[in-house]
Design goal:
128 residues, 5 strands, two-stranded antiparallel ribbon, alpha/beta, three-stranded parallel sheet, 35% helix
Length: 128
């Protein structure tokens, strides 16, 4: 289908089966990839919960949500399988993300490299 020079194509079940990797029956949650989501603010608790829920349903092995303590009690009943990394209470937005990255770097430097999962690497590219 074409509309104003833009081509649309339906992405169906057969397309997904063709491009998505197959998971072995004995796959472990640490072996299929993890995800750290940085989301949520006082007015957007649902967005963080929906991100975590979607990540689990999409196949992320470990889902960890970086959020402020005030949001955890609202999100936990909706997505109980999600782990949490608490963001500093006094700061929001990009400053909170940068604080989290500094903390992760300190944690990584204190651990043997073999014990740090690949999902611990973070970037703020594209975040404003």
């Amino acid at each position: 289908m074409t509309d104003a020079g833009v081509t649309f194509r339906e992405f169906g079940r057969d397309d997904a089966i063709r491009i998505l990797p197959r998971r072995s029956a004995g796959a472990h949650k640490w072996g299929v990839g993890g995800l750290l989501i940085i989301a949520g603010s006082p007015g957007y608790v649902g967005a963080a919960a929906l991100c975590a829920m979607a990540a689990g349903r999409a196949g992320a092995g470990i889902v960890n949500l970086a959020a402020h303590r005030a949001l955890v009690s609202a999100i936990t009943p909706v997505v109980p399988e999600t782990g949490f990394t608490l963001l500093p209470e006094a700061i929001w937005g990009r400053a909170a993300i940068e604080s989290l990255m500094r903390s992760r770097r300190r944690q990584r430097s204190a651990m043997p490299s073999s014990s740090v999962p690949d999902s611990a690497t973070m970037t703020t590219r594209g975040i404003s």
